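Notes continue from the previous slide.

Worked example: a multi-chain complex. Inputs as given:
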Amino acid sequence: MSADVRILAAEPNCHLFGDNGCGFTPPTIGMFFPEPWFANIPGSTGIDLYMVLLLVAVGAVLLLWSWFSRKLSLVPGRRQSVGEMLVLFIRDQITRPTMGAKGDRFIPFMTGVFTLVLAMNVTGLIPGMLPVNSNLAFTAMFAVVIYVMTIVIGIRNQGGWGYFRNQIFPPGMPKAIYVLVTPIEILSVFLIRPVTHALRLFATMFAGSLLLAVFAYGGWYMLNLTAEPLLVGVSLLFSGAALFGYLAFFVFEIVIMLVQAFIFTLLASLYINQSLEAAH
Amino acid sequence: MSSEPARRTEEREPPAPRESDGWALFSTLLSGVLVWSAIGWAADKLLGFQALFLPIGAVLGMVGAIYLIVVKTRQV
């Protein structure tokens, strides 16, 4: 979300119209590979910023749902009502439109996915932090879990061969068309779908936080209060425009984070439904 | 209060999902183009053409993907 603090640390007095001889160093993708704080952990790449933010996001989600679920009553109070509204949102906008009433048993899972993905996105709004989902490893793990779930649910509902046959040979087509369509279905269902599921969320969070970093560091670089008065005025104008861009994009990024969490959960529900149903 | 939305939702049960959902369509379209472009590329390599079957495969893949989407949409 913020500028690449390594650039700020390396070139603290680098500004537009400055006389240090330094130019603008844009934030790079290196900001998404933070140095681990504890590297010597066997079988692991170490504890870095992403791991800590993941723990913060998981802790926040657990605390939130514990708080919503405390002292549940038939006539809900305000706290319980807010929790129920969120669950009803998941049911009415995600599981019922995709799976119908038979998908109600997946509401707890989808609620968990939605709130955790959203919490992992929102960590990027904390000053100096990054969205956890701007690292492909985390979105890939979500997608892998959902992918394995769709296969297991499909096999349980349609039988081993039945599930794979219905996926690879969609019913309702002339047999000759299977030559054209079967390779497409194999690649789509078993490779492209989980890959795009993970990549979509990763790419939007990655691009969003990189853009915010460019606005933030650009605004900082263009601010020079020690030059000639005319140049100070120009730098204030440029820096103000960057600040405005940063604030506008910050608000936009909040919306994007909500939308991407919704889309990720909606697609998970859609994919699970295609395993529940024999034909689609 | 919390039961009222449940009743209204059950009364107007929405239809089952359709492959025509834009986000889910994307993987089918992409797969169609990719797989048949790869088959076309392999055919070019085997038969010694520079770029004959690759574009044919890409178009065939797109046609197949669109056909797949239309058939699945009609089934729901």
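Summary box: The longest helix of chain B spans residues 22-47. Residues 17-75 of chain B form one domain.
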